[in-house]
Amino acid sequence: PSLLLDVFEPDDRRILREAIAQLQTDGGRFTVVLPVSRGEHDLLWLRVCGFPVREVAAQLTRIVGFCEDITEHKLAEDALRDSEAKLRTLFNHSPDLIFTVDAQANILLTNRPLPYPVGGAGDKRSELILPPDVRAAYLEKLWQVFASGRIEHYQYTSSDGTWWEIRMVPIASAKAVMAAMVVITDITENRKLQWQAIRSARLASLGVLSAGIAHEISNPNHAITANAALLTRIWHDALPILGEYQQEQGDFLLAGLSFAQARETISRGMGDIAENARRIQKIIANLKHLGKQDRGHMDELADIGKILDAAVTLLDARIRKHTDSLTLDLPDALPVVRGNVQQLEQVFINVIVNALESLPERSRSVKISARLDSAGGRIVVRVKDQGQGISEDVMAQIGEPFFTTKAETGGTGLGLSISSSIVEKHGGVLRFESNRKFGTTVSIDLPISTEE
Question: Is residue 65 within a helix (H) or strand (E), and if so which, with residue range?
């Protein structure tokens, strides 16, 4: 056997010697797989088999063996093992929970420890992973997979407000579905994006409608403004004549009012008409701005003071509904912020509306302010209300998508979540401080633009 042994490397030669020695000791056959070098980087794989040959008296007389070239089989086996290892790594590191089940919904294989206990010892019922109110629908879908061989989907929301999708994929042979692969995916972020798209579409529709209304109101308002200015000039021209008439003829009545009363009332009325026409024009300008399509550009220079002033103007009716006291405290000038004007306006409107809706009575106030921070590099907008405050359990979930305390009034739980995303996209921070006795302060911290 020395000639056979000489073709192998020393370690492999030792393995073969041990196999031969074991055969001589116990009389059994052996099979070992050993490499043979065919150059610097090339190996030949041999399967070496040995069999004992005995005489009638069971005496071992010789060993018969053969060598078989299994290089192709060995390389294919190694490639398959490597592929299986890679697949197992992907399977185990998938962010989704993946498992296979049989026709009775029992778990056969899973890629990670299960998130919930699955019953007692040996109990592998897959439906127990899911919330109780989802299990019946899951089993119904699973039976459909085994019956039809088609992929089924089911979505549900858990008690913590997250959304999940269950995908059930049949694993079939030529004749029947043998098992099903179940993939459970967290789709909360996708749902958030879907709701944000729906909300954006609604806002876009509202913007188009607002722009149309603004155009229709603008024309008659221009007429009111022009005629009010003309009538004011006529009245001022007529006043000296009417004053002389009063001195010569004595007091007289205009629309049932004495001349002195009429002079004061008409002057005040003409001023009110002009002031309210200007106010209408400002609202029209804001509505037209709201109607502009937001293309998501982040390169606009945003004047925070003007944006806050526009937001307060747009919310005038809601402000008058909720409080007698809303103050807007702004410095004469603030540095600009680079970003998206409409998105920032959306954030401020959302925060101000939340502050107004938190007020239990009209005597409570809301104060809005904007200031540079002490370092002079950031603008801090604060919206402080005298509302009912935010409880600790609500504060822990505030800003999470789909979490809302206003579900009964149509709240989606996306307002603050979207606002937080917008502020973060601008390099800012959205903070909340709340006290059940003194209300809530929302701070929006934004970096100023360093460019001219």
Answer: strand 60-69
Query: What does the pLDDT average to over 385-400?
Result: 73
Tell me which of 23, 46, 77 is where a domain ends.
77
pLDDT of 399 above 60: no
The CA-based diameter of the chain, rounded to the nearest angstrom, is 161
My answer on whether 443 and 308 are in the same domain is yes
- Token duo for residue 336: 């600009």
The reply to whether 212 and 169 lie within a common domain is no
**C-alpha distances in Å from residue 28, one per residue of 49, 57, 149, 195:** 11, 16, 50, 72
In this structure, the number of other CB atoms found within 10 A of the CB of residue 386 comes to: 21
- What is the dihedral sign for C-alpha 67, 71, 76, 82? positive
Please report, for the domain that includes residue 10, its CATH number. Answer: 3.30.450.20
Domain count across the chain = 4
Global pTM reads 0.45
Q: Tell me how far apart the alpha carbons of residues 74 and 44 are, in angstroms, rounded to a whole number.
A: 9
- Count the neighbouring beta carbons within 10 Å of the beta carbon of residue 210: 20
Distance of CA 182 to the CA centre of its chain: 24
Residue 98, pLDDT score? 87
Q: Which of 133, 154, 186 is the last residue of a domain?
A: 186
Residues of the domain holding 51: 2-77
Closest by CA to 403, choosing from 157, 229, 221, is: 157
Is residue 73 over pLDDT 50? yes
- pLDDT, tens only, 294-325: 556 778 889 999 999 989 988 888 899 999 99
Strand, helix or coil for residue 103: coil
Residue 50, pLDDT above cutoff 60: yes
- Point out which residues pair with 365 in neighbouring strands: 325
CA dihedral 50, 55, 60, 64 (to 10 degrees): -20
Average pLDDT, the chain: 83
